């Protein structure tokens, strides 16, 4: 939308109301944990749509598979991501920070968190989210053990650990078979999200934030050099993600492979912006490296608890309007 000049009586630009997006960017889901507002971004179900359309080819022979996809990538994924964000929220509050809100979207979500006073605390906040996937994985594993068949459809004894593969005949055999496969896939969903968020040192994932903070805090790397290394690492990893997604897409990977490629593109884009900020010597305006505990090389943050907000996970879509209380 382009602003146009009007009569001299028009209000100055600074007093103009914030611009609205053409599409509603998020839906309010209420609040929790001390009144923290939770919103659902309209792109959250992108992965669900990809998997749903890829499942249509199996609908004739295995109609329950479409229901399985809807349940796994709908409420199960939403609850999993929400608990992940609760981990960031609890850690931030426990360490003396503030939380402005949570927005859920396809890459998981992000918590808009106020400052903690050191990089070591920032690392704890980043790690707290992925750690929630461990008890979630154990919960779904217990469900799997409770409902699994003693023998599979081929007459073999069912393994104590769920298979990564989706057994369509078992899933279609009845309620017990359906929940056996669903619980097994939920176990793997949590393992993947844990590894993806924490073990990949690519900004803006949690692992990238831990990586950046560790470069400054543990290896005593200058903040601008740490930002450069973080950006380069993210771009290299993102290109590998895109390449893997494209290869899998053309070798039968379907929906998730396309999603992996799109995530890789987003990681590359954010890392590219970070690298540009380094080149412009403009890290002070960056949502993560602009934090004083980063700028000071890990020294104690001198800001008051009511200072500017910084993101616990900078993985938000760029079109979230400022009036929604979310930093774009």
In a few lines, what is going on in this structure?
51% of the residues lie in helices and 8% in strands.
Give a written overview of the molecule.
The protein has 328 residues and is an alpha+beta fold. The chain is 51% helix and 8% strand. It is built from ten helices and five strands, in the order ββααββααααααααβ. It has helices at 46-55, 64-94, 119-131, 133-147, 168-171, 175-198, 206-217, 223-249, 254-279, 292-295; strands spanning 26-32, 36-41, 99-104, 110-113, 310-311. The chain has a five-stranded mixed beta sheet, with helices on one face. A hairpin with a 5-residue loop joins strand 3 and strand 4. Residues 1-24 and 301-328 have low confidence and may be disordered.
Share in β-strands: 5-15%
Oligomer: single chain
Most strands sheet: 5 strands, mixed
Helix proportion: 40-55%
Order of helices and strands: EEHHEEHHHHHHHHE
Question: What's the pLDDT, averaged over the residues?
Answer: 78
Radius of gyration: 22 Å
The secondary-structure class comes to alpha+beta
């Amino acid at each position: 939308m382009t602003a146009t000049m009007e009569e001299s009586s028009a209000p100055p630009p600074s007093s103009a109301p914030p611009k609205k997006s053409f599409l509603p960017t998020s839906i309010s889901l209420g609040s929790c944990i001390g009144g923290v507002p939770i919103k659902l971004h309209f792109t959250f179900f992108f992965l669900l749509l990809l998997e749903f359309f890829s499942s249509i080819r199996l609908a004739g022979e295995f109609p329950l598979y479409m229901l399985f996809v809807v349940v796994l990538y709908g409420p199960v994924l939403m609850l999993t991501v929400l608990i992940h964000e609760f981990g960031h929220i609890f850690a931030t509050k426990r360490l003396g920070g503030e939380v402005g809100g949570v927005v859920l979207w396809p890459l998981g979500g992000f918590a808009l968190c106020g400052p903690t006073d050191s990089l070591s605390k920032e690392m704890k906040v980043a790690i707290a989210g992925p750690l929630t996937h461990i008890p979630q994985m154990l919960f779904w594993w217990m469900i799997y053990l409770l409902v699994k068949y003693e023998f599979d459809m081929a007459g073999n004894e069912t393994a104590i650990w769920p298979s990564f593969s989706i057994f369509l005949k078992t899933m279609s055999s009845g309620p017990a078979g359906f929940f056996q496969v669903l619980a097994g896939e939920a176990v793997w969903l949590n393992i993947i999200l844990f590894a993806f968020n924490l073990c990949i040192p690519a900004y803006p994932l949690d692992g990238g934030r831990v990586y950046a903070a560790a470069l400054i805090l543990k290896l005593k790397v200058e903040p601008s050099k740490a930002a450069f290394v973080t950006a380069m690492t993210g771009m290299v990893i993102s290109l590998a993600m895109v390449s893997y997604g494209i290869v899998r897409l053309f070798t039968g990977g379907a929906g998730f492979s396309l999603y992996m490629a799109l995530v890789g593109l987003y990681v590359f884009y954010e890392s590219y912006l970070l690298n540009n900020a380094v080149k412009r010597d403009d890290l002070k305006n960056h949502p993560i490296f602009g934090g004083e505990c980063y700028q000071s090389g890990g020294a104690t943050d001198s800001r008051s608890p009511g200072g500017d907000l910084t993101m616990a996970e900078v993985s938000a879509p760029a079109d979230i309007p400022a009036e929604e209380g979310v930093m774009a």
